[in-house]
Amino acid sequence: MDFELSDEQRALANSVRDFCRAEIVPHAKRWDDSEHFPIELIPKLAELGLMGMQISPEYGGAGMSFSDYVLVIEELARHDGSVCLTVASHNSLCSGHINGFGSEEQKRRYLPDLTSAKKLGAWCLTEPGSGSDAGGARTRAIKKGDRWIINGSKTFITQGSVAGTYVVLASTTPDAKQKGLTAFIVEKGWKGLRVGRHLEKMGLRASDTTEVIFEELEVPDENRIGELDHGFTQTLRILEKGRVGIASMAVGLGRGALEEATIYAKQRAQFGQAIANFQAIQFMLANMSMELEGARLLVRRAAWLQDQGRRTPQESSMAKLWAAQAGRRACMDAVQILGGYGYTREFPVERYLRDVKLCEIGEGTNEVQRMLISRQLFAGA
Ligand SMILES: Cc1cc2nc3c(=O)[nH]c(=O)nc-3n(C[C@H](O)[C@H](O)[C@H](O)COP(=O)(O)OP(=O)(O)OC[C@H]3O[C@@H](n4cnc5c(N)ncnc54)[C@H](O)[C@@H]3O)c2cc1C
Question: Within this chain, do residues 368 and 279 fall inside the same structural domain, yes or no?
Answer without folding.
Answer: yes
